[in-house]
Write a structure and sequence with these properties.
Length: 227
């Protein structure tokens, strides 16, 4: 019952479930690989079988084979199982729960990442620190809260989508999690409180805090949405 609410797994089926290990995502916003393979995709029946296919390098996360059963897979990460021709992107539903969205092999070659902050490292170079723990060297033109599309697994920047009015965004936290709409207004709060963003909803506009806004495209989403 203490399982994170973001896990789309039945709570009363088993007494125990595997927790995520430390990694690029925290436990409340990610799923361990073994749970994905066993309880969601039903590719294996138990952890032993899951460990075997991971050791055989049959499962890739963002284009890299992972052997850790507890490796955390979070929002917008890509899971590939080439031998079965299965490719998925982790998304979030309207209840804030993580789920796997079927994609094709071409879409599995990229992912989108939010720039959380920038740092200047030795030599005066700019480093982008992304939401999935990735750090990438880039030019000064990139800004925090922008989204970049990167190739997998080499993580080269393919495209930049600015955090600005008019672009498409997904709400990734709060009671409106999973909602996708156009950014209509950004209100800067001159205090310690979060800035407020207005997103166009299905029936009415939705207000949320800036930290929950993830830009996903300009006139339309870069990624495939829907189950």
């Amino acid at each position: 019952m203490s399982m994170p609410t973001s896990w789309r797994v039945p709570k009363k089926t088993n007494k125990w479930i595997t927790a995520t290990s430390p990694g690029p995502h925290n436990k409340d916003s990610s799923l361990p690989l073994v749970v994905i393979l066993r309880d969601i995709l039903h590719i294996v029946d138990n952890a032993k079988e899951a460990k075997q296919i991971l050791l055989e390098k049959k499962v890739l996360v963002d284009g890299i084979s992972r052997k850790n059963l507890k490796f955390p897979v979070g929002l917008f990460d890509v899971i590939s199982i080439p031998a079965n021709d299965q490719y998925y992107r982790m998304l979030q539903d309207s209840k804030g729960r993580l789920y796997l969205n079927n994609i094709d092999e071409e879409r599995a070659k990229f992912k989108i990442c939010k720039i959380l902050n920038k740092t200047t490292i030795r030599g005066g170079k700019t480093q982008l620190n992304l939401h999935d723990g990735t750090n990438i060297l880039a030019s000064e033109e990139y800004k925090t809260k922008d989204t970049i599309q990167i190739s997998l697994p080499d993580k080269q920047i393919l495209r930049r989508v600015e955090y600005k009015i008019g672009n498409m965004a997904m709400i990734t936290g709060g009671r409106h999690s999973g909602t996708v709409g156009q950014i209509k207004e950004i209100t800067t709060i001159k205090s310690s409180k979060n800035n407020v963003v207005k997103i166009s909803g299905t029936n009415s506009d939705i207000e949320t805090i800036e930290d929950y806004v993830f830009v996903i495209g300009e006139d339309k989403p870069i990624i495939k949405l829907g189950e």
